[in-house]
Design goal:
Elements (H helix, E strand, L loop, with lengths): L1 H29 L11 H9 L3 H40 L1
């Protein structure tokens, strides 16, 4: 079960990172062609809206968060399992 959490976590983290990078790459390619922008939303936000990449941007962040959470769950389960095994061996030998 821990292995499935690690595989899922790494897949989500890798997919989120790649999508995040591609969105930033598209924004960086689009920004030089902008004629102007207003200051409150800023250049980045207007470029996200103009290229219709706000949803992939949010999805990429969600994927990265889900991946980190799955990694944390796998690490927590591994540490608690080792702690239980250590506790069992010390109580059974005493």
């Amino acid at each position: 079960m821990r292995r499935s959490f690690l595989i899922a976590g790494s897949t989500f983290l890798l997919a989120g990172t790649l999508l995040f990078g591609m969105v930033y790459w598209a924004i960086a390619d689009y920004v030089p062609h902008m004629t102007g922008w207003s200051d409150p939303p800023g250049k980045f936000s207007l470029a996200l809206d103009a290229t219709m990449l706000r949803v992939p941007y949010i999805i990429s962040i969600l994927f990265m968060v889900i991946g980190v959470v799955l990694f944390a769950v796998a690490i927590y389960k591994e540490l608690t399992n080792k702690n239980l095994e250590t506790h069992r061996t010390t109580t059974s030998t005493s």
